[in-house]
Amino acid sequence: MAQFPPTVAEPGQDGTLVLNMGPQHPSTHGVLRLVLEIEGESIVRLRPEIGYLHTGIEKTCEAKFYQQVVPLTDRIDYLCPMTNNLAYCLAVERLLGLEIPPKAQWMRVLMNELTRINSHLVWLGSSAMDLGAMTVFLYCFREREDILRFFEMVSGQRMMTSYFRIGGLALEPPLGLFEKIKKFADRFPGNVDEYENLLTGNPIFTMRTKGVARLSADDAIALGACGPTLRASGVDIDLRRDAPYSGYENFKFKVPVRTEGDVFARYICRVEELRESIGMVQQALAGMPEGPIKADAPKVVLPDREKMKTQMEALIYHFKIITEGFAVPAGEVYEAIESPRGEMGYYVVSDGTAKPYRVHMRGPSYANLQALAKMCEGGIIADVVAAIGSIDIVLGDCDR
Amino acid sequence: MPLAPPITNIEELKSHPALGRLMAWNASVVQAAKFDREELTIWVEKDAIREACALLRDSADCPFNYLCDLTCVDWYPSEPRFEVVYHLLSIPHKERVRLKARLDGSSPAIESVTSVWPSANFFEREVFDLFGVRFTGHPNLKRIMMPDDWEGHPLRKDYPVEGYR
User: Which of A226, B58, B97, B146 is the most exposed place for a label (fewest CB within 10 A)?
Assistant: First the structure.
């Protein structure tokens, strides 16, 4: 973080003008501050200043029991809470050596893909609005509202869901959920066509995005870009396909890759991902297995409410888990999954006690932000807005 | 699914491309190795970390060309206190490896890998900010999360959670 209060007019090098952008600029999607050194209208140097949203979540995790960390993970990347839940739960489950029943895995994939659609819709709406296309924003938020209703049905919360727990899911999916998701999934491809009609062939939109903020494949790898930003530069990697987790190996999907590496390519990649994700939602609904939603591990997984009222053991286990947590065998795990923004890694270190010794989150926004300077330098000021929109940054994920 | 016991014998693990490459280059920089929960960890001599990273990045048969993550773990009060952790990914071969370097608690410093991967820039600044580990050769080693005038390094285990008294 920069000095507080931030100094605006630092002297520029070689006669450049220093322009401060943010941290309250509407197009920075949160509290990102950019220090631009400009010469006329072109950018000589760009320096991101972050840390305005640093809440010390990694430190807080060290003082919590393993199961108490799940709600904290929601708040890191607040546009894809379930992806965070999943990465953390998978990491701890691997530390414990827990096996997750198939229904819980399929539910996780289903909710995770809905989360991806939800996150991409926010990105599509807000980044198009940054470029002046107001209508798309309203359409995207209309569909997003439907997905948030599904989240509310399963977890009782619209945004901070904490629906995935260590060992399975928090609750059985309610009656009528699958029918509603099915209806949504049937009509959603039509909605994507609607967005594409407004943007893909729109001459104003293509002029603002094609050839803007280019990033070559080598630069993208060297600067640590990930997710759609990396795939739009021609690097074919998707952890769902290349290192399947949580039963992704049972799903068929294509990984959209473009080679142009500009804002438009990132847009196309994400829109294609919307279509692939809804296909996976359909597959998850069609093949949803029957069975339990929690692993058979009474010392780790909270018992059902009904059992607690009739069985003494269930009550004892509940009391033990709540009051003293559960010990996790010593070791360390780096669990990387594909979040809507790219590789989200959870590095969890256990020292054998009931509290994690260290939890580190590798945020995809943090890595993508480093590529921003390379994209913008040499371009013009107006394109910075398009570039920030195209890397789909979430500052909660960045600052943690 | 019971946990398999970790493998720590370097000879047994040599078939992994990262360990094989490092052993073929200079066996003395590899302090230890462990294969646990399907992940390989290699402890590397701290003075050789940049060369080891550059070697793995440019390795011909399995280039670990992507730095996923760089972080640190504080093992206070035991010595060596800090472990700097590098997670590497080979994009062409989808292989992962974890490198670790141990640092003393008195004045922890290690060579920066920003010359190998520019992406290490922010990660090293974060470790410097929150753990107080210095990275020599880093182009802009300043605090990134905390304000510039902050005292102490919050993720150290001896950092008081309620603030200094």
Answer: B58
